[in-house]
Structures are given as structure tokens and as C-alpha cells.
Design a protein that fits this description.
single chain; alpha/beta; four-stranded parallel beta sheet
């Protein structure tokens, strides 16, 4: 009797900790008597049959590395019937009985399509945005926060030296989690997120109030989903007379060696994914709930609504005076 064979791929934007998840999938599968195929460049690799068997030593010394050794991509072809059919055919040709997909919402929609076509898939939430509704935490989020914090700390040094206001855009797509927690960590005067309406007058009023108490430099953290940091900085300078500079941190937040939390979470999630596929269970998303690893039906997961931590946002407001 041939061994059960599964595949693993990374899709969408890269996130620190993806390599730790790949390592966990490969080593868990092998330790459970299964074979593993590594698929290159996401769903494109399934379509083009760009994959190879992975052994224990293929994932040695990768747990500390950022990015993904399997590379990643967003596949428009996979959204077409012909692309999906080619991916299914290649899975069957390689005797693949299940696929672990590491990525975000778009990747999970692809996993659902593949599952519905007869190839069981398990999704692992890998994105620095922490915007997967079914999971309290996503692989890469902690590392991205620490990177953003370190960079804003450096910006604050120069803002303080010149009595400036630094308006900093962090990533996060349409979610404000990265901005909120980074903003608290760097002592931002104001944090602007998509989940809360804001007026520039309120930002300026808070700056003026803190200036009256002796503050001379300011950090304003803006979520990517808001954008327009150059315009925000210009209007702040016009209204307050405080020299204001805009900085977009950009894709550097996706890189770097993953933190302990990301390495451990990715390892736990990868282990759980293989256990599900070993039982022939697919069409699931692995998630964190109250600190425990759980799983949801993909459609259920995609239909969930992301909640915003209003209490933490209030904390940020109250302590940023």
C-alpha cells in the first residue's frame, strides 16, 4: 500500500513564519508516515506542475528565515475553470490526497474551490495584516508589529531632535490591528484606523492639547486602509505650524526573522493541518481561538466578520495624552 501524499504551498503576500509552517507540515507528515510535495509559487505551481518531494533535511535551518522557501504568487489563472482543472489534474497525477495552503482570504477561496473539486485542502492564516476573521491571530503579525515598532522608534528619534510631527503609515490593508498595536507600543499621539471614523480636527486638537502640557514632538500612526499620509502631514503642518513629515513603512514590514510567537504559532498550525488531512478531512481553515488551535469550515470562516478591539482603542486614546 502506497503512502498517503500531501502537498504544501504558500500563496498571496509573504509573511514571516511561513517557513516555520512549511517546516512543521513537512516534518509532521513524515513523522506520521506520509509523503510531502512542495509546490512552488502558490497555485501557479499546481497549474504548471512545479513541485518536488520534500524530505526532512529540505526544511532544516529555515524556521528562523523570513519569506517563504516555496516562493509565493497571486494566481489569476487559478480563478479560471481551465486553471482549476489543470491544478486538479496535476494533484491526481502526483497522487496528492490533500493540500495545505498558507495564505490569506484569497488563498482560502482558492482552497475552497480546490476542495469542492475533490482535492481536500486545509488553510493556514499567514498574513501580517491579522485580518482573517475566524482567527484571533495570523502568522506573521507579531513580527510585522515588532518591525514597525522598531522603525517608528527610529523615526521618533529624529522627530524629537527637530520638534517635528511624524505621520507614519503602516500596513494592514483594510484592517487596523497593525496600526493600533504598533501605535500603542510607540506611544503615538493619535492612531487612525479604518474601523473608526476620524476627523483631522480631532487629531490637531489632541496635538495642541498635548503641546500645552509640554510635548514638542508627535507620532501619528495611520493604517494602510486610510492612506493619504502626505496630505495628512501637510494639513497638520498648516494648522499647527509644526513641521510634519510623512513616512510610508511599506513592504519592509513583511520581512525579517519571525518572532517566537510566529514560529510557535506556525508550528502548531502546521501540525494541526496535517492531522486533519491524515484523517481525510478537508475544506477547513486552522485558527486561533482563546489561545487554542481550532478549525472551521472554509465557507463559514470566509463569511465571518472581523471584530475590532474597541476597548484597546480606548486604551490608546486615554494614554496618549
Amino acid at each position: 500500500m502506497s503512502k498517503k501524499k500531501i502537498a504544501v504551498l504558500t500563496s498571496g503576500g509573504d509573511a514571516p513564519g511561513m517557513n516555520a509552517a512549511i517546516r512543521s507540515v513537512v516534518r509532521t507528515a513524515i513523522s506520521h508516515g506520509m509523503e510531502v510535495m512542495g509546490v512552488y509559487r502558490g497555485y501557479n505551481g499546481l497549474i504548471s506542475n512545479d513541485m518536488k518531494p520534500m524530505q526532512l533535511r529540505d526544511v532544516s535551518d529555515i524556521i528562523h528565515r523570513g519569506g517563504t522557501i516555496l516562493y509565493t504568487a497571486r494566481s489569476l489563472k487559478f480563478k479560471e475553470p481551465e486553471g482549476l482543472a489543470a491544478a486538479v489534474e496535476n494533484c491526481k497525477k502526483n497522487d496528492i490526497s490533500g493540500v495545505v495552503v498558507i495564505g490569506g482570504d484569497g488563498s482560502f477561496r482558492g482552497a475552497r474551490a480546490l476542495s469542492n473539486a475533490g482535492i481536500p485542502c486545509i488553510g493556514l492564516p499567514g498574513t501580517i495584516d491579522n485580518d482573517i476573521s475566524c482567527s484571533e491571530y495570523t502568522i506573521g503579525f507579531d513580527t510585522a508589529m515588532n518591525t514597525a515598532m522598531s522603525m517608528v522608534d527610529k523615526l521618533r528619534d529624529t522627530a524629537q531632535s527637530h520638534d517635528r510631527c511624524s505621520v507614519v503609515e503602516v500596513m494592514g490593508r483594510a484592517a487596523g490591528d497593525l496600526a493600533l498595536k504598533t501605535g500603542i507600543a510607540v506611544g503615538a499621539t493619535y492612531i487612525i484606523v479604518p474601523e473608526r471614523q476620524f476627523s483631522l480636527d480631532e487629531v490637531i486638537e489632541r496635538m495642541e492639547r498635548t503641546r500645552q502640557s509640554g510635548k514638542k514632538h508627535f507620532i501619528i500612526v495611520v493604517a494602510e486602509g486610510i492612506g493619504g499620509v502626505d496630505e495628512i502631514a501637510r494639513k497638520i503642518e498648516e494648522a499647527t505650524g509644526i513641521e510634519s513629515r510623512a513616512t510610508v513603512l511599506g513592504h519592509v514590514q513583511r520581512g525579517g526573522s519571525p518572532t517566537v510567537r510566529d514560529r510557535v504559532t506556525a508550528s502548531r498550525m502546521g501540525y494541526h493541518a496535517v492531522q486533519l488531512l491524515e484523517q481525510g478531512i478537508g475544506n477547513r481553515v486552522v485558527a486561533v481561538e482563546h489561545g487554542k488551535i481550532v478549525d472551521y469550515d472554509i465557507s463559514e470562516a470566509l463569511n465571518m466578520k472581523k471584530t475590532f478591539d474597541e476597548e484597546l482603542y480606548q486604551v490608546a486614546l486615554d494614554i496618549s495624552i
